[in-house]
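User: Please predict structures.

Assistant: First:
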Amino acid sequence: MKRQNNKQRILLICASFIMALTIATPLSAKQFTALVFTKTAGWQHDSIPAAVSAVNYLSQLHDFSAVHTSDANAFTSENLGQFDVVVFLLTTGDVLNEHQQSDFQKFIRSGKGYVGVHSAADTEYDWPWYQGLVGRNFVTHPAVQSAKVNVLDPGFPGSEYLPSRFLWTEEYYNYGPEHSDSLNYLLSVDESTYQPQAEWDEVKSSGMGDFHPLAWYQEYDGGRAFYTGFGHLSTSYTNAMFLSHLYGGIYWAATGKGIE
């Protein structure tokens, strides 16, 4: 009887230890948290629902938390404090007021991350700080076409799944000059393999010439920023290569970790 009581006591102690360990280290803890922001004040892409679904899929595949909103009121210091990265997913135009801009700046300056997808470069033209964050402005684009894309940095997260060059179909943006001198380029498109010329009323472009970047990253004002020009077509968000590229950017911006 005494021996049985001792066994029960030992089992109770073990159960208490396991319970305490579970509370101290939650089994459901995610590796980072992302705010996915899709507000538009200009052109609205039909691919937004597919893009949001793709990030939700990536969050399940890679065990991170993703919260979607198109409400700029989410940009308060109190709310942003729970996130590691903010993804401007196909945003356009003037999406944040002055107070929201200030709180977002504080977020980045605290060491957090930003990801811009496609028309994030067509966002907040009148805010110089954001233009430095995204790196380059959208100017114009020709029709959707297939073209040869070159990988410039195979060591960046997500690039390990990309061939050194590949054929890709996209609405290839022509970009303006750099707004930051610390951009590290990941992808470029070969303009000799498609027609880069575009004309919109008074806005004309013959392309960007020998070097036409598509994706880049940088450390910026205490935080991290990643941008990709991919993402116009809804079908892109079911492509494994693009999803690897997109997750690599989210992962790096959220954590600052690489693979080399």
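Second:
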Amino acid sequence: MDIDTVSLGRTGLDVSELAFGTWRFGRETDAGNLETDRSTAMALLDTYEAHGGRFIDTADVYGEGTSESWIGDWLADRDREDFVVASKIYWPTREDDPNGRGLSRKHLRRQLDQILDRLGTEYLDLLYIHRWDDDTPARELMRTLDGFVQDGRVNYLGASTLAPNAWKIARANDIADRYGWEPFTVTQPRYNLANREIEGEYLEFCRTNDVGVVPWSPLAQGFLTGKYQRDEDMPEDATASDTEGWEDRYLTAENFDALDVVEAVAGEVEATPAQVAMAYHLHHPDVTAPIVGARTTDQLEENLRAATVDLSADQFQRLEAAKAGPFDDLL
């Protein structure tokens, strides 16, 4: 089973249809345990590569830089040109430093230098802003990012988001176009069958402007795997439920109704609910490549098999209608 490649928006770049997320690499829990240790991280990267995966997603804040360092060590034994590597900048990386976060020119320049050093590479294929920084003028941001492209340290620019904000991307790109600077050509929003916030103007903007969409959390922090049931106690391994507000966000009647549809389709196509939830993205005309993650190689193998799931037009439409989008009540 090899995963296919798809075009990344209007960049001209081809990427794996399933990106591999490394946010757990080196991440320490409140109890002081590593979610993914070095040996497991290497095994996961090996498994992803073995199935044709070439699109690796990380960030400077993942494992406080450990994720990038381990990826760099892994890439050192391979041809760097075979892989598309993306990282992100925004979150605090220096304690007690007022300039140790955000998107100021000072922070961006320092962090990019450190990212490249940890990854052991001369360039990033894709640099995302991890969130928006309203304290940094859009003109300063786009001019700084364009400089990274012009000096060859970054190939393409992206914006990772939590809440829909197509107007911010449009405004930044308008400034970039006005001055002949590099625009954002990729977005990384949260999107899944439980979180439908980007439906509407956000996806319409991306579609109209041929901007690549690389969603994070395609399984809704594990909710769409089917391991959570109505009116039942939380599973012992439900680590996602430790996230503040997780239960209120996901364990709702509306979301369980959507999960019922996912599980019904999974039975029809002889797949797991997780595979169907990701296959929905693979069949979605506005989605480029969802980001998959895993704790074990077996789990990653299962997630990657989403690429083999064939949904009929009727099944896709049932999944799409499983939960109302943000504007459906206005129609």
